[in-house]
From TrEMBL:
InterPro entries: Flag_FlgI
Assigned GO CC terms: bacterial-type flagellum basal body, distal rod, P ring; outer membrane-bounded periplasmic space
GO biological-process terms attached to the record: bacterial-type flagellum-dependent cell motility
UniProt xrefs under NCBIfam families: PRK05303.1
Record key words, sorted: Cell projection, Cilium, Flagellum, Signal
Subcellular location: Bacterial flagellum basal body
Molecular function terms, GO-annotated: structural molecule activity
HAMAP family listed in its UniProt record: FlgI
Residues making up the signal peptide according to the UniProt record: none
Protein name: Flagellar P-ring protein
General function of this protein: Assembles around the rod to form the L-ring and probably protects the motor/basal body from shearing forces during rotation.
C-alpha cells in the first residue's frame, strides 16, 4: 500500500516528464531493495545454550501398588512381590507364621521414576511415573504406597504416594480380549513431595558457564560478540566450541543478570549439512544445507519370482510301480526399465527430493542411492545411519 501511494503521488506531481521518469525508476529500485530485505533469523540465547549447574536430576524407587481388581502380580511367579509384602507387614508390626504362602492378586511390584527439577525445595511436589516390573495385567485403579525416591548418590530426595491414572483400558471375556493403549504404566500428577534440596552453585562462583547445546565454533563466537555488545567488552570469552565463560558485572543481581543474559537474541551460524538415515524404518531426513555436485542417478527394479507346482506320477493298473511325487519349478525374471536422472551442481534440498521422486525411488531405495552418492563424492553432507 505504501508503494502504491508513493507512485500515485509522483505521477500526479507537476514536474517535467523526464525528471518524473527518473524519479519513478529510482523509487522502484529503492522500494524493491527494501522488499528484498528479510529480517535476520534469531533465537534467544536460552534456546541455544544452558547454564552449567542448572539441570534436573533423575530419581528412582521401588514400591508396591495395591487395590488392583485381580490384575496384580501372580505371586507364585514373582517372589520379590511376596518378599516386599512380608517386609512391609513386619515393619507395621504384623508377623506372619513361618511357612505362610501368600496367594495375592491385588498387589503389584512397581518401579517409580521421576525427575527432580533445578532449584526444587522441600515441600514442593513433582510428577511421577509408575511402571510394573512383574506380570501384572493392569495397574488401573491401583494406589501406590509410600515409596522413597533416591538419586544417583543413594540419598532420598522425595517420597511418593497416591492414586494412579492409567491412560489405557482393556477387557476380556470367553477367550476374547481387547485393549487400548498401555495398562502396565501409570502416572500420578504431583505424586511425590520433595524432602531434600540439591545445593546450587549459581551464586557461589565468580563467573557463569554457558554450554551450547550443539558444539559449533562459529556460533560460540557469535554468542560471545553479542554478550560483549550487551554488557561490555571482556564480559564473555569462548573456552572452546561449546563452553562460554561469562563474568557478571560487579555488585549486580545474579538472577537479574541471568534473565537478561538468556533474553539476548542470537543469529546462529548455518548448520552443518547432514542426512540422517534410519535403516530399520527407511526414514530419511535432510536439512536445508544439503547440496549436490553434478551427478547422474540410475534406478531400476529387478524382480525374481519362483513358483513350484507339485507333479504326481501315478503308475498304471496292475503294475508293480509306485506313485512318485515330484515338483516342477518355474522361474520368472522381470526388470523394470531403468531411469537416469541428471542432478546439476548446487542443487538444494527441494531439487534432491524432486529428482529422487521422479525416478520412483522408495525409502529403501533412497538409502542405497544416498550412500552411493556419498561414496561418489556428489553428496555434500554428512551421512549418518541410525
Amino acid at each position: 500500500m505504501v508503494k502504491i501511494e508513493i507512485m500515485h503521488n509522483l505521477l500526479n506531481t507537476n514536474i517535467p516528464s523526464n525528471v518524473k521518469n527518473w524519479l519513478v525508476k529510482t523509487c522502484l529500485l529503492i522500494l524493491g531493495g527494501i522488499t528484498l530485505i528479510q529480517p535476520a533469523y534469531a533465537e534467544r540465547l536460552k534456546d541455544l545454550a544452558s547454564i552449567q549447574g542448572v539441570r534436573s536430576n533423575q530419581l528412582i524407587g521401588y514400591g508396591l501398588v495395591v487395590g488392583l481388581d485381580g490384575t496384580g502380580d501372580q505371586t507364585t511367579q514373582t517372589p520379590f512381590t511376596v518378599q516386599s509384602i512380608i517386609s512391609m507387614m513386619q515393619q507395621m508390626g504384623v508377623s506372619l507364621p513361618p511357612g505362610t504362602s501368600l496367594q495375592l492378586k491385588n498387589v503389584a511390584a512397581v518401579m517409580v521414576t521421576s525427575s527432580l527439577p533445578a532449584f526444587a525445595q522441600p515441600g514442593q511436589t513433582i510428577d511421577i511415573t509408575v511402571s510394573s516390573m512383574g506380570n501384572a495385567k493392569s495397574l488401573r485403579g491401583g494406589t501406590l504406597l509410600m515409596t522413597p525416591l533416591k538419586g544417583a548418590d543413594g540419598q532420598i530426595y522425595a517420597m511418593a504416594q497416591g492414586n494412579l491414572v492409567v491412560g489405557g483400558v482393556g477387557a476380556a471375556a470367553n477367550g476374547a480380549q481387547a485393549q487400548i493403549n498401555h495398562l502396565s504404566v501409570g502416572r500420578i500428577s504431583s505424586g511425590a513431595t520433595v524432602e531434600r534440596a540439591i545445593p546450587s552453585s549459581i551464586g557461589l562462583t565468580d563467573n557463569v558457564i554457558l554450554e551450547l547445546k550443539e558444539s559449533d565454533f562459529s556460533t560460540a563466537t557469535i554468542v560471545v560478540d553479542a554478550i560483549n555488545r550487551r554488557f561490555g567488552q571482556n564480559t564473555a570469552f569462548a573456552q572452546d566450541g561449546r563452553v562460554i565463560r561469562v563474568l557478571p558485572p560487579i555488585n549486580s543481581s545474579r538472577v537479574a543478570f541471568l534473565a537478561a543474559l538468556e533474553s539476548i537474541n542470537i543469529s546462529p551460524s548455518a548448520t552443518t549439512a547432514k542426512v540422517i538415515i534410519n535403516a530399520r524404518t527407511g526414514s530419511v531426513v535432510m536439512n536445508q544445507a544439503v547440496t549436490l555436485e553434478s551427478c547422474a542417478v540410475s534406478h531400476g527394479n529387478l524382480t525374481v519370482v519362483i513358483s513350484t507346482t507339485p507333479v504326481i506320477s501315478q503308475p498304471g493298473a496292475l503294475s508293480t510301480g509306485q506313485t512318485v511325487a515330484a515338483a516342477r519349478s518355474q522361474i520368472e525374471i522381470s526388470k523394470e526399465p531403468g531411469k537416469v536422472v541428471q542432478l546439476n551442481s548446487g542443487a538444494n534440498l527441494s531439487d534432491v527430493v524432486k529428482a529422487l521422486n521422479a525416478i520412483g525411488a522408495s525409502p529403501q531405495d533412497l538409502l542405497a542411492i544416498l550412500q552411493a552418492m556419498k561414496s561418489a563424492g556428489s553428496l555434500r553432507a554428512d551421512l549418518e545411519v541410525i
